[in-house]
Amino acid sequence: MLRAIAISTCVSMLLLAGCKKDEAKPADKKVEPTKNDKPTDKPADKPATDKPPATPPAAAGPAMSCDKVLSQATRDKYLKGELQKDQAGATPTAVSCSFLVEATASASAVNYLCQPAWPDDRMKQTVDASRGMLKNAKDVPGVGRMAVAGDMGMTMMTIWDDDTNCIITATGSFGDVAALGKALVADLTPASLK
Questions:
Q1: What pTM was computed for the model?
Q2: Cα gap 93→89, rounded to integer Å
Q3: What whole-number distance in Å separates Cα of residue 142 and Cα of residue 124?
Q4: Which of 52, 59, 99, 132 could anchor a disulfide with 81, C-beta 3.0 to 4.6 Å?
Q5: d(CA 54, CA 51)
Q6: Looking at residue 93, what DSSP letter applies?
């Protein structure tokens, strides 16, 4: 069970990290003259450089945490067990929350990735990619803008919350996935991301 949670968390974080990475443009290379090249009297527009131009760092906001995005009521009702890991993602807008009931070794996890700049089609592609990995995948109506749940050795649900432009992925043994999805979306507000 714990291994299945770890695997599904890795899979969902891969989905959340982005289905398609932007490719960096190669830096301009310095051209060395050969002995056949003739010198010119024209000055160069810019000096050649081996380094690409510096890009300003992305604005870093406060890091997400499980305490900010998951209410105690949702934890108590759907995510039984102690919070084992509140792992920040690679950006301040990602977090993974893992829970464990030691007596039964049952585990669950909720992963968040909020990408305000992602267009709608990118968010839809992320949910559709999750659908493609699940057995018996079904839409979960009334949860966020789009939600899908199915089996991956345990229940996995992926939600697109368009109020925050976040993808939420929950894995574990859940009874009513629609009720859990509604609770997760209700807990995640623009204020909870600050």
A1: 0.69
A2: 7
A3: 16
A4: 99
A5: 8
A6: T
Written in H, E and C, the secondary structure of the chain is CHHHHHHHHHHHHHHHHCCCCCCCCCCCCCCCCCCCCCCCCCCCCCCCCCCCCCCCCCCCCCCCCHHHHCCHHHHHHHCCCEEEEEEECCCCCEEEEEEEECCCCEEEEEEEEECCCCCHHHHHHHHHHHHHHCEEEEECCCCCCEEEEEECCCEEEEEEECCCCEEEEEEECCCCHHHHHHHHHHHCCHHHHC
